[in-house]
Amino acid sequence: RKEVEQDPGPFNVPEGATVAFNCTYSNSASQSFFWYRQDCRKEPKLLMSVYSSGNEDGRFTAQLNRASQYISLLIRDSKLSDSATYLCAVTRTTNAGKSTFGDGTTLTVKP
Amino acid sequence: GAVVSQHPSWVICKSGTSVKIECRSLDFQATTMFWYRQFPKQSLMLMATSNEGSKATYEQGVEKDKFLINHASLTLSTLTVTSAHPEDSSFYICSATSGGDTGELFFGEGSRLTVL
Q: Which of A25, A82, B13, B95 is deepest in the core (most CB within 10 A)?
């Protein structure tokens, strides 16, 4: 079993749709959680850190469920510009930086 | 946020040659940098952890003699793909942390290597 598993894609949604991605992790010692966005042929860029209390940034909401060992990303009112691959990342200890990435979920938002 | 710069962005080389990729942290000191490889439509695969002033720690299955990593200063790590072959063609990305407690990674722009 992979240490970090993501929803298989691709997700194809119309503009304005709400879409949710899930990511599960197997190591209960994991401490830091992130969602990265990666555009085609580009490097990943941090979208959001994920906190136990959940966090929201505009149309994006990230949540962490430690008991069930998963994190989620909700995108509301999808825009064409949201089309990208979304990677979840998990680190076992803070201040170490060694993250394990999921395989990524590709989102395509269509007009 | 912190800035990490990677060079070159693109490189095409002949089989058997060696290619060096540089990763620089521009506005912070990075005692630890990470090197990843990414094949098309696949996720990032951690190759090694680069530690300033010491030997890199390689992930299982990554040949250390094939992928030479040097981290001679707090702002520069280099990855050298030695005797490159077509199967080494890939997207190589470095990342670094700024040392804070968040664990956030800052990525270089990536280097796309094509070996002919």
A: B95
- Per residue in B72-83, pLDDT (tens digit) is 888 999 999 999
Cβ within 8 Å, pair B105-A49: no
CB pairs below 8 Å between A and B: how many?
63
Summarised one tens digit per residue, pLDDT across range A19-73 is 999 999 998 878 789 999 999 889 999 999 898 888 999 999 999 999 999 999 9
Distance (Å) from the alpha carbon of B39 to chain A's nearest alpha carbon: 10
User: Are A95 and B100 an interchain contact pair (Cβ–Cβ within 8 Å)?
Assistant: yes
Q: How far is B36 from chain A (nearest CA, A)?
A: 11
Residue A36 tokens, joined: 């990265």
Query: Within chain A, how many helices (H) and strands (E) appear?
Result: 0, 11
Buried b (16+ CB within 10 A) or exposed e, B33-44: bbbbbbeeeebb
For chain B, what percentages of helix, strand and coil (3-state, to nearest 5) are there?
5, 50, 45
